């Protein structure tokens, strides 16, 4: 059974940092590309960051470039999202998602690109 479990969210002051984790189980982690998305209250879920199955290729939404860093550890079946210089507008429920693919050069940024989703971890940034 494919499972993704996010953790690491919390309440933090603006300017602070958080490291989100997403642990996977039930499948061969290295066969999957991964993404992070977020959904703020009253808004649609939006793309944040992408990482290829190998970890070589990453891609970010313009709104988070330079502040967010996605990485993965295939030996630990875990993907991470390092969030620095947090802003109140980063407040959202953060989700990780997975898509089975090893297609070279592929970048996945749409919700419908992904097959599996976690339940999310809440990030709240106070001003």
Gross morphology is globular
Radius of gyration: 14 Å
Strand/helix succession: EEEEEEEEEEE
Beta content: over 45%
Low-confidence stretches: none
What structural category characterises the helix and strand content?
A: mainly beta
| Estimated helix fraction | under 10%
**Mean pLDDT reading:** 96
What layout of secondary structure does this protein have?
Elements lengths: L2 E5 L2 E4 L4 E8 L6 E8 L6 E6 L6 E3 L7 E6 L4 E6 L8 E9 L15 E2 L3 E6 L1
Molecular structure report:
The structure is a single chain. Strands 2, 4, 5, 6, 9, 10 and 11 form a seven-stranded mixed sheet that branches. Strands 1-3-8-7 form a four-stranded antiparallel sheet, with no helix packed on it. By secondary structure, it is mainly β. 0% of the residues lie in helices and 50% in strands.
